[in-house]
Amino acid sequence: MSKDVCEIESINKDAVREVKGKLRNDDEVYQISEQFKLLGNQTRFKILYALLIRDLCVCDLSCILNISQSATSHQLRVLRNAKLVKYVKKGKMVYYSILDNHVKMLITSALKHSKH
């Protein structure tokens, strides 16, 4: 028998009830897991990491990532649709930034966790 499973079956009904009462509904869990899938893409994570440092336009991001502006725009559109980034137009330029502090904390936490 494996050491990483209980040797007997004993259900703690209070613990089960408590956790079941606090679990998110399936729609919320789906949305969250989809956001994590987006973060699993290296290019999108690099974009978010770059935007954590400072707001950037598509031209700058494509240069930083060494990919085409078209590919950069596509990834930004995916991130924007997922409500992870936002943009502001200044004259003929469009600058992207991370949507809010929640996204910043998520990226920062992932970076810190990777060092452990």
Account of the 3D structure:
The chain has 116 residues and is α+β, with helices and mostly antiparallel strands. The chain has one domain: Winged helix-like DNA-binding domain superfamily/Winged helix DNA-binding domain (Arc Repressor Mutant, subunit A). The protein is built from six helices and three strands, in the order αααβααββα. Helix 4 (58-65) crosses helix 5 (69-81). The chain is elongated.
Give the topology, please.
Elements: H1 13-22, H2 26-39, H3 42-53, E1 56-57, H4 58-65, H5 69-81, E2 85-90, E3 93-98, H6 101-114
Antiparallel strand pairs: 1-3, 2-3
Helix pairs in contact: 4-5
CATH arch. level architecture: Orthogonal Bundle
Tell me the strand order in the biggest sheet. 1-3-2
The secondary structure category is alpha+beta
End-to-end Cα distance, whole Å, is 31 Å
Give the biggest sheet. 3 strands, antiparallel
Topology as a string of helices (H) and strands (E): HHHEHHEEH
Please give the CATH class.
Mainly Alpha
How many domain modules? 1
Strand content: 5-15%
Assigned CATH superfamily: Winged helix-like DNA-binding domain superfamily/Winged helix DNA-binding domain
Q: How many strands appear in the DSSP assignment?
A: 3
Spans with pLDDT under 50 lasting ≥5 residues? none
At the fold tier of CATH, the topology name is Arc Repressor Mutant, subunit A
